[in-house]
Recover the amino acids of this structure.
């Protein structure tokens, strides 16, 4: 038996190129997506310009509503939007409520520890929103002052950034069903911090609101799509999609449509 082993190995080596290759194994998420024929995309349905559910029509609107449809079309899959939020994002991905989060996810250090990200496709600084004629806050320099209440949306990247930045003002974390706008209009806070997409909502719809921009870059953060760890092939699919839409004009067109061209990253 020992004498025949080398010749058997030689024969196997000669035959190997003629045999059909074993199919490449997909990762767990990619395999499930292909098997189900559906990609489940987490969105935050209160993100103006990005993934907003219209209170009047219940229609979903925004850059990532359009781009998630393009993603599903590229993969020849059905699309299922799943409501999520920044505070539940990690749990929703780790718990398999969705396959990918597509709602301008800021690449925060604590998220980078738990999630995997595509290449960035947008970026935003932090902006302040207050009421017109506000007596306490009229300029960026007025924000971090004694007696000023500064609101942030719980779970957004503004929360840790402003927590570290504020030395004299009081930080107020706002979680649903409360909103930063209602807290500001009611006088319970003096100003709230937000990003460029959400600031557009106020400027487009609230006559009482005024925007305060930082006099110089304050904390510019890249935005990307997020998946849970453990499936490099699925992350590669998501990343390749971002690269395609940056090249072929779909990202630019969607950004123009939803008023986000100033913060889009085309490479």
């Amino acid at each position: 038996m020992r004498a025949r082993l080398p010749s058997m190995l030689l024969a196997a080596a000669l035959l190997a190129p003629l045999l059909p290759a074993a199919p490449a194994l997909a990762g767990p998420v990619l395999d499930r997506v292909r098997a189900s024929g559906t990609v489940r995309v987490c969105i935050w349905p209160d993100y103006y310009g990005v993934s907003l559910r219209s209170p009047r029509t219940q229609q979903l609107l925004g850059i990532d509503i359009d781009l998630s449809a393009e993603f599903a079309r590229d993969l020849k899959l059905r699309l299922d939007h799943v409501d999520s939020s920044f505070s539940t994002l990690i749990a929703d991905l780790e718990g398999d409520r969705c396959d990918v989060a597509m709602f301008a996810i800021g690449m925060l250090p604590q998220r980078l520890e738990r999630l995997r990200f595509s290449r960035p496709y947008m970026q935003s600084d932090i902006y302040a929103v207050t009421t017109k004629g506000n007596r306490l806050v009229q300029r960026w320099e007025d924000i971090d002052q004694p007696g000023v209440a500064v609101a942030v949306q719980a779970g957004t990247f503004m929360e840790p950034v402003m927590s570290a930045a504020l030395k004299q003002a009081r930080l107020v974390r706002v979680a649903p069903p409360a909103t930063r706008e209602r807290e500001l209009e009611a006088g319970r806070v003096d100003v709230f911090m937000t990003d460029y997409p959400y600031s557009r909502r106020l400027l487009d719809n609230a006559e009482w609101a005024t925007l305060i921009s930082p006099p110089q870059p304050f904390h510019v953060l890249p935005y990307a799509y997020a998946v849970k760890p453990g499936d490099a092939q699925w992350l590669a699919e998501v990343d390749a999609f971002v690269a395609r839409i940056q090249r072929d004009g779909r990202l630019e067109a969607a950004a123009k449509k939803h008023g986000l061209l100033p913060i889009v990253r085309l490479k």
